[in-house]
Amino acid sequence: MSATSLRFDIVTIFPEFFRGPLDFGMVRQALKKNLVSVAIHNLRDHAGDRHRTVDDRPFGGGEGMVLKPEPLFRAVSSIASQDSSFPACRTILLSAQGRRLTQETVRELADCRRLILICGRYEGVDERVTDHLATDEVSIGDYVLSGGELAACVLVDCIVRMVPGVLHNHRSTLNESFSRPAAATQPGKRIQEPAILDHPQYTRPESFRGLDVPPLLLSGDHRKIKLWRRRKALEKTLRNRPDLLEYGCLSEEDKRLLETEFEG
Ligand code: SAM
Fold it and tell me: Which of 5, 31, 104, 232 has its CA 20 to 30 A from that of 163?
């Protein structure tokens, strides 16, 4: 058994929610191998009354309910004091109003020993939690979910796969969408390579319903395959994610690559 390198503590009003999503694939394996651990905490256990109240109406009027500050402050302080071998690293509030999650943030969070994730519900949480309890307010995208639980699962999933030992080949995380080429991340390198999308992948059969795999991929010419893949990754990024890459910012080498004819 390896020692757990990262512990997640998730605060939620729906603890049962996490039974399914964390029970498959890579996250399940990482939990089984004890590379990471996840503890789920019921916010209602930290309510201060016999009705286990965790929400109330918003001051100033308006729709819906808001998660109260006291149960959340109590929950986080109680969690942080459990298991001193894992000092709390970051307390993350999942929120549509947060900083949008990127692969760069995921890498940064994967270096932590312990992450406390707070799942909001209803109209959200009292802003004093955002300002004085959470170290980070994170959004998983520009849309509104009905609760932070799905967002917490997204965070757990993408962080867990960055933990050393979880993926069979950890180097594969250096060559996937939103990663910068290895050379560009070396210290002292001044030019920041853009983080682009991954290149397209194909597998057997070579021909399916008249749709053929690009012949170059069957050629065995690894130098040409590498160039072709770079070109396809650049094309796809320019087409689907112009926010990541502008043609004008491409290196002369990449511009030439986009004009190259690949035969065979
Ligand atoms: N009134 C809030 C607003 O407009 O920003 C939306 C509250 S939402 C219905 C309830 C909870 O879902 C939030 O407190 C948050 O925890 C979670 N949530 C919703 N969208 C999210 C997103 N894009 N990323 C992360 N969490 C989200």
Answer: 232
In a domain, 171, yes or no: no
Check whether residue 55 and residue 100 sit in a common domain: yes
pLDDT in tens, 200-235: 999 999 999 999 999 999 999 999 999 999 999 999
> By three-state DSSP, how is residue 101 classified?
coil
Distances (CA, A) of 141 to 14, 49, 100, 150, 221: 22, 35, 6, 12, 40
Residues 59 and 185 in one domain: no
Q: Which of 94, 126, 160 is the last residue of a domain?
A: 160
Ligand 1 site, CB within 6 A: 94-97, 119-121, 123-125, 139-141, 143-148, 151
142 within domain boundaries = yes
Question: What pLDDT does 194 receive?
Answer: 87
Predicted confidence (pLDDT) per residue in 26-67, tens digit: 999 999 999 999 999 999 999 999 999 999 999 999 999 999
pTM of the model: 0.94
Residues 189 and 93 in one domain: no
What spacing in Å lies between the alpha carbon of 151 and ligand 1's midpoint? 9
Residue 203 identity (one-letter amino acid): T
Among 257, 23, 33, which residue's Cα sits nearest to residue 153? 23
Is 74 in the same domain as 131? yes
Ligand 1 pocket test: pick from 10, 72, 92, 94 the residue with the most ligand atoms within 8 Å of its Cβ.
94
